[in-house]
């Protein structure tokens, strides 16, 4: 654990030095990943990683990931994930079938609420927004998230990955470890001679 990250957590702030990445690939593709560095880092001579760096959820620890299982099922978080591999500061978990099903079922419910909102001409998507807000509040309350984290709605995208994993018959993984830098393209003004 990096010192700056430990201090951030101690102060109740989001620790940007760690991240979680939820992804789905056929099991045979796991050999393309180094558990110590995670799925956002290409290994060997590969040009692409298993998951893009934008998929990182900063400051998320395994207990945070598992808390979503409790929110969706009412069951203890220990039933959410099983450790597949641990190297260095990285840990790869496989989400249990019960966790995948809970997320995929919830995602299908959200799709249904969106369809209802659209059918009623509800441009504010009131039903969908209410359910997402309910999930977000329950997940925030289920475990000790950093005080400066006010929204988890972006993290709920993992439910779509769960739906896709179930549809394709692939495992769903949750990797936790050191975050990767993201590079941002910044436009500059070109000067003409």
TrEMBL record:
This is Uncharacterized protein. It comes from Cellulomonas humilata.
